[in-house]
Amino acid sequence: MQAVIMAAGKSTRTWPLTLTRPKPLLPVMGMPLLEHQLRSLQGIADEVIIIIGFMGDMIQQHYGGQYGTIRLRYVEQKEQRGTGHAVLQTADAVKGPFLVLNGDDMYDPADLQKLAFQPDAALAREVESPERFGIFEIDGDNRVLGLEEKPARPRSNLANIGAYSFTPDIFGLLEKVAPSPRGEIEVTDAVHERALKGVFRVIHARGYYLSIGYPWHLLEANSYWLDHFLQDCRQGEISPLAEVNGKVHIGEGTGIRAGVVIDGPAFIGKNCIIGPNCWIRSGTTIGNGCRIGQGTEIKNSVLFDGVFAAHRNYIGDSIIGEGCNLGAGTTTANARHDEGTISSLVGGVLQDTGRLRLGAALGDKVHTGIHTAIYPGRKLWPGCHTLPGSIIRKDVTENTPED
User: Is beta strand 2-7 parallel, antiparallel or unpaired with respect to 47-52?
Assistant: First the structure.
């Protein structure tokens, strides 16, 4: 069977993390999103067609033409004209029934297996806020009666989660559907047409489903993966004066020095230096080649490869991009004084994250001056830096002249 993964989008909602990489390469517990999907498709698909666009060469270079038993093929979507337009780019490559998956979601392999055995179907699950999703209306036999995007008055709470099983007939429908008000060709419009003929069904997803829509969703996915799938593995050199509690992964070539406390679940990659005298708290993933040192505390955070946080830093509920260097005393505040939920600016609109704990999101190669303090939910764009003693109250998208 073939599967199609839609991985072409620019993903502005996850800036600054996706200014320097496509979203499918964002890491969850030390592994890119796309790799989690490919693992889930092992034993289901023998070929995966990856639709690439924004920085697609990074995906090709990372994975090449094979992943385990799966052949990989790449198709470019040169214009971003919607999910249906993306699928249409694979018409010449698809030979029979096939799966289509969103490139920024993680699906349970058991649910994908069920989907593969039911042509003309979609995975769906019940959600608490149906007005934020595409919502299915179904009959008693799970046949789709209608699909409405983000309805003001939802007829159910059964959400479309972006995983489909199609036959090649779908290409003819996609060629005929009218563009949406945004001028895009949408897969969901073709699904609606199939539903009108009474041939499209819903399969209820019973396993995990993790979607990365905003930067803070990476924290949620990482925590879920650590809680459910982390294997205790200690390959590095651990000082007898260090304390390691619970399930912890420590990669090859990593040194854990004296005075370090690690509380699992936590994941530490290869060739890192951790310590002396620092605290790695539960829910944390640290990438390869990182240096975490004296007096630094990290809690429930994701650090990409090559992060340097060696001197008395506090990193709480934060995402730190590749190659960042945090000056001594850098602090990411992660809670409001009034104990309210934290908001973050996305596309010029203040977005309520729904989280009581959220720190910073730093793009790649950010450098902070000593004693920098960053307000909750703030972001710094790739390559930006701060002066000593800076207080970051707003997102930093470029360096000011006096810097």
Answer: parallel
- Both 25 and 173 in a single domain? yes
Q: Which of 179, 213, 247 is the last residue of a domain?
A: 213
CB 168 within 8 A of CB 186: no
Annotated active-site residue in 62, 311, 371, 385 = 311
Token pair in block for residue 78 = 């040169």
CB count in 10 Å sphere of residue 323: 19
What does the pLDDT read at residue 215? 96
CATH number at 122 reads: 3.90.550.10
Contact 11, 54 (CB under 8 A): yes
Residue range 89-106, pLDDT digits in tens: 999 999 999 999 999 999
Please state, in angstroms and rounded to a whole number, the distance separating the CA atoms of residues 193 and 4: 21
Secondary structure of the chain in the HEC alphabet?
A: CEEEEEECCCCHHHCCCCCCCCHHHCEECCEEHHHHHHHHCCCCCCEEEEEECCCHHHHHHHHCCEECCEEEEEEECCCCCCHHHHHHCCCCCCCCCEEEEECCEEECHHHHHHHHCCCCEEEEEECCCHHHCEEEEECCCCEEEEEEECCCCCCCCEEEEEEEEECCHHHHHHHHCCCCCCCCCCHHHHHHHHHHCCCCEEEECCCCEEECCCHHHHHHHHHHHHHHHCCCEECCEECCCCEEECCEEECCCCEECCCCEEECCEEECCCCEECCCCEECCCEEECCCCEECCCCEEECCEECCCCEECCCCEEECCEECCCCEECCCCEECCCCCCCCCEEEEECCEEEEEEECCCCCEECCCCEECCCCEECCCCEECCCCECCCCCEECCCECCCCCCC
Cα–Cα distance measured from residue 118 to residue 194, given in angstroms and rounded to the nearest whole number: 14
Asked if residue 243 and residue 173 are part of one domain, the reply reads: no
Whole-number Cα distances in Å, 348 to 131, 394, 395: 22, 12, 11
Is residue 367 among the annotated active site residues?
Answer: no
Query: pLDDT by residue (tens digit) across 275-319?
Result: 999 999 999 999 999 999 999 999 999 999 999 999 999 999 999
Q: Strand pairing partners for 244?
A: 262
Mean pLDDT, residues 192-212: 89
**Tokens 């260090």, located at residue:** 242
Which residues, at least 6 apart from 197, have a Cβ–Cβ distance to it below 8 Å? Answer: none
What range defines the domain where residue 347 resides?
231-392
